[in-house]
């Protein structure tokens, strides 16, 4: 499958492996060309440009303009925010921009010289735009937001949703250190106010406590006795382990995980009441401990038959098949519960791609092997994939016909092979014989 909205190097380029106390090895894979060094912002330069542009500067929030990206090419951006480089009255600004062709995770602060001022276009009406984007929420999300309300706060209306968008539009934490990795973040996350002034946070990779300074982390690591996530190890195969963490029993861990995950999840508007969730943490284990690769969360009770709320593979581990492993795992749990399941909506761009790839592979593998007719219901029973998702997937591949008021699967083996090939390689396999788990039951 082709690259999504960004070059492949985006993901790997944002991660640096840390070899020992703070020493960084060179970035993994091909790092995009470095951005041009910061301008010294000389007065002369600024004045000339000001004159030339006849009062265009500083650019207003909402301005659309072309901006040089890390690939060295110019791309259209919208100015989201601006800030002065120094308190001086004549100081230049830098701009927080959104590349309109790309996902919000690539939003960043840029210097004036990256902007092509001759291309300055319009100033858009922010309020009109926000009305559209601010309301993209599922009923379920809305309910969750309502649940997280602090007592005395009125219902969240469209205006406060817009305010939330406004508040989260600029990334707060730029990088985190987690285990061996330094990772550039993708989105805003609502860390407590005392972390407002930090652009980098240091996480303990085992208990996920986060700190402002490296020395604090080093002191913490001497005391912290965890070498794996809290909770029960429910799966082990080779070096891969899965841990189940009950948000009610491990509240702080659950909250820390939500803060961390939000840095890479855009559309999940708030962190949840963790009591209601179970967290499944995937780890790569070695002699130093079990290192978190990714996770998914699951509501203890879901009215909407959601079997997964949020899924994340940490950037250094992405595109290696762990995402599909986590998805497959979530369906194995549903099978053990004797239920069908579906991921909570909306799905992100990467979530959509991963699910689609997983559904295609699982369903087409069965259709290929199966002799004779098979119904959507039967497919659903075999895979725990919800019937609507099966129908949507097969319709997307043009494998469904509507005959005599019924959906019929029409699967020519050659066509199946073609689709399977296009769907790319499968993820890491879940070995069900290594899963030791019973569905959640309320205790006491
Ligand atoms: N560009 C293009 N395709 C991609 C990319 C990318 N950057 N990343 C993943 N994919 C697609 C590919 O089709 C890939 O299959 P392939 O390797 O055969 O080409 C497929 O997704 C899955 O790849 P995996 O390696 O199995 O998945 P990964 O470990 O990268 O995890 C995940 C996928 C969890 C979605 C990850 O991208 C992530 O954590 N993203 C940030 C958080 C997020 O968006 N989560 C989903 C939100 S929706 C929800 O939570 C219900
Ligand atoms: Zn710790």
UniProtKB/TrEMBL annotation:
Query: Which GO molecular-function terms appear in the entry?
Result: chromatin binding; histone acetyltransferase activity; transcription coregulator activity; zinc ion binding
The highest taxon in the source lineage is Eukaryota
Listed A to Z, the keywords are: Acetylation, Activator, Acyltransferase, Chromatin regulator, Metal-binding, Nucleus, Transcription, Transcription regulation, Transferase, Zinc, Zinc-finger
User: CDD domains in the record, alphabetically?
Assistant: CBD_MOF_like, NAT_SF
Q: What is its EC number?
A: 2.3.1.48
What is one GO biological process annotated to this record?
DNA repair
EC primary class = transferase
One GO cellular component assignment for this chain's record is:
nucleus
Catalytic activity as recorded in UniProt: L-lysyl-[protein] + acetyl-CoA = N(6)-acetyl-L-lysyl-[protein] + CoA + H(+)
- Taken from the record, one Pfam family name reads Tudor-knot
* Family of the protein in this entry: Belongs to the MYST (SAS/MOZ) family.
Q: What is this protein called?
A: Histone acetyltransferase
Q: Can you name the source organism?
A: Trapa incisa
Lineage of the organism: Eukaryota, Viridiplantae, Streptophyta, Embryophyta, Tracheophyta
């Amino acid at each position: 499958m082709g690259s999504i909205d960004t070059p492949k190097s985006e993901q790997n380029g944002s991660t640096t492996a840390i070899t020992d106390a703070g020493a960084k090895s060179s970035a993994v894979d091909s790092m995009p060309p470095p951005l041009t060094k910061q301008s010294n912002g000389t007065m002369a330069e600024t004045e000339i440009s000001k004159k030339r542009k006849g009062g265009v500067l500083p650019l207003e929030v909402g301005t659309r303009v072309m901006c040089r990206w890390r690939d060295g090419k110019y791309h259209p951006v919208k100015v989201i925010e601006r800030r002065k480089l120094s308190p001086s009255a004549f100081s230049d600004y830098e701009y927080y921009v959104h590349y309109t062709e790309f996902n919000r995770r690539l939003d960043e602060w840029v210097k004036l010289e990256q902007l092509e001022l001759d291309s300055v276009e319009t100033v858009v009406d922010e309020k009109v735009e926000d009305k559209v984007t601010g309301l993209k929420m599922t009923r379920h999300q809305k309910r969750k937001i309502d649940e997280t309300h602090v007592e005395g706060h009125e219902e969240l209306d469209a205006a406060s949703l817009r305010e939330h968008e406004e508040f989260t539009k600029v990334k707060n934490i730029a990088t985190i250190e987690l285990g061996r990795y330094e990772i550039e973040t993708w989105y805003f996350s609502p860390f407590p106010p005392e972390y407002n002034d930090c652009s980098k946070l240091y996480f303990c990779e085992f208990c996920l406590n986060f700190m402002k300074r490296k020395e604090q982390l080093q002191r913490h690591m001497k005391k912290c006795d965890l070498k794996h996530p809290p909770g029960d190890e429910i799966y082990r195969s080779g070096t891969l382990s899965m841990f189940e963490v009950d948000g009610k029993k491990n509240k702080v861990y659950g909250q820390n995980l939500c803060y961390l995950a939000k840095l890479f999840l855009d559309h999940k508007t708030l962190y949840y009441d963790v009591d209601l969730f179970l967290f499944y943490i995937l780890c790569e284990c070695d002699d130093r401990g079990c290192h978190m690769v990714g996770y998914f969360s699951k509501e203890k009770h879901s009215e909407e038959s959601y079997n997964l709320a949020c899924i994340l593979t940490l950037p250094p581990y992405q595109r290696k098949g762990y995402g599909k492993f986590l998805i497959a795992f979530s369906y194995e749990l549903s099978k053990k519960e004797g239920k069908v399941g579906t991921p909570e909506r909306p799905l992100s761009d990467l979530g959509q791609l991963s699910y689609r790839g997983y559904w295609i592979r699982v369903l087409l593998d069965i259709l290929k092997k199966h002799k004779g007719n098979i119904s959507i219901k039967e497919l659903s029973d075999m895979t725990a994939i919800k019937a609507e998702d099966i129908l949507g997937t097969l319709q997307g591949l043009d494998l469904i016909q509507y005959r005599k008021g019924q959906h019929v699967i029409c699967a020519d083996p050659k066509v199946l092979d073609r689709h399977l090939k296009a769907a790319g390689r499968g993820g890491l396999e879940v070995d069900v014989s290594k899963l030791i788990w019973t569905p959640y039951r309320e205790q006491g």
